[in-house]
Input
Amino acid sequence: MNSLDRLAIVSFDTKAYDRSNGLNMMTHAKQQTLHTAVAQNIHAGGGTYIGSGLEMGIRMLINRRTKNPVGAMLLLTDGQDNQHHDYSQLMRTLPDGVVCHTFGYGLGHRAALLSQLAEQGHGGTFTFIDQVDSIALAFATARGTLFTCVAQNLNVKLDFDGSYAVTHSHSIYRHEPALLPSSQITFKLNDLNSEESRNLVFQLNVPALVEQPNNNDIIGRVSIEYTDAINGRQIHTPTIPFLLVHPAQLTPDSPLLVINYALDLQRNRAETSRVLKEAVNEPNYERARELLNAQLAKIRSSVSAQDPLCQQLIRDLEYQYTSQYELRTTMTNMYM
Output
């Protein structure tokens, strides 16, 4: 970081602490001061209240007098949140242009909560760190994204024909219209970095075919608008067609029958979030436990079951709560 960049450090246990006295220009002297503050003043406390740290960090960003072109908030934790907080409301106060990246250390954190916070934090990333030697790479990657932003204020526009319509969105990116289904929808993303990819996961209504189809039918189009982060120009990409592929016959070795790993991972994440919300609203704990066990079985039999995120979801679902009250309190924290 150079002297024009600014940094603040907030630590938290059962409450939050401003370790840097607000945002500071990263002069050499300030870097040394912050290094000393981290080394001498941050110690393990008796609890984990993520909401307090997030709230203080967001307040600093809201109250800053000048704004850098690119901003980020990095959330690090190795523990489970043990206090209730309305994270959906809190993350909506994160200033535009600031992305929240989350990092979970070891097996003690709740991966689902951190993943959700990152998604609601303007499309940030969640990194699961299970080994000490992975820390440097994880931070180098996150830090690198702050200096490699290539596009800002992205709008991904989908326009489907006829009765084809988006019925559900399983990504936390804002979209217009907010109410679905809709044959026209625009997803709103924030910064996109060089070599970065994003997933837009949604369900599409496909009407019954009334005539003999072609092998590839155009059912809609997609285009992107964004601001070039380097020169500030507004870019409009050409429209790309959506193709509905439906061959007359499928052989057993057809690639169309192979489950997509990345999509399977996103499906597990989205379905786990949905099932946990159902379990929270279920008044009978035994019935809630049945819902969780059914989702456990689905994840374990999926192609992405061994992915670190799925393994953490499995641990979250396996946890045995003493009562429906404990389940509701914990999951309200995790899944808003």
Remarks:
- The chain has three domains: 6-146, 149-250, 261-335.
- The mean pLDDT is 85.
